[in-house]
Design brief:
The chain is α+β, with helices and mostly antiparallel strands and 146 residues long. It has three helices and seven strands; from the N terminus they run E-H-E-E-E-H-E-H-E-E.
């Protein structure tokens, strides 16, 4: 199946990404809704992925932390499309966006089950396991090559 991945540039793109985040985080993972949306959503660069039927199947965002660092976050892939490359496409687009913005280092607070996904794409663990809303996470870091 082919996927279209693009930078969210319209209210419809953003709404589709937010709906997917609600489906994955709130419904599937039982994370409280107020934690899904935050003030960073308004300053972040967002990416959305659509399947050939126009359904949003992937999303993520990148938030600038300082002049050289940004944080990848709120990555979600629909349950039906996991293991089909959607997450990798979204992450690649987020990394491209960060690089275009002059970012040289990315971090991500990864849920433990997703650590291998990021490690396989050049991210390295920094520090130990911590809980975020009762879910075990680790911080991962990647230096972008220019």
């Amino acid at each position: 199946m082919a996927f279209t991945v693009r930078f969210a540039s319209s209210p419809e793109d953003h709404d589709a990404g937010y709906k997917l985040r609600r489906d994955v985080f709130e419904t599937e993972q039982n994370i409280p809704r107020p934690l899904d949306r935050d003030a960073f959503d308004y300053s972040a660069d967002h990416v959305v992925a659509f399947d050939d039927k126009g359904h949003c199947v992937g999303t993520g965002r990148v938030v600038r932390v300082d002049s050289r660092t940004a944080q990848i976050g709120r990555m979600a892939v629909s349950k039906e499309q996991r293991q089909h490359g959607v997450g990798a496409l979204v992450l690649e687009a987020l990394e491209r966006m960060a690089s275009m913005r002059g970012i040289s280092e990315l971090t991500v607070n990864s849920q433990l089950p997703a650590e291998a996904f990021y490690s396989n794409r050049g991210y390295s663990r920094v520090g130990g396991v911590f809980l975020d809303q009762g879910v075990p996470h680790v911080v991962l870091r990647k230096v972008l090559v220019r």
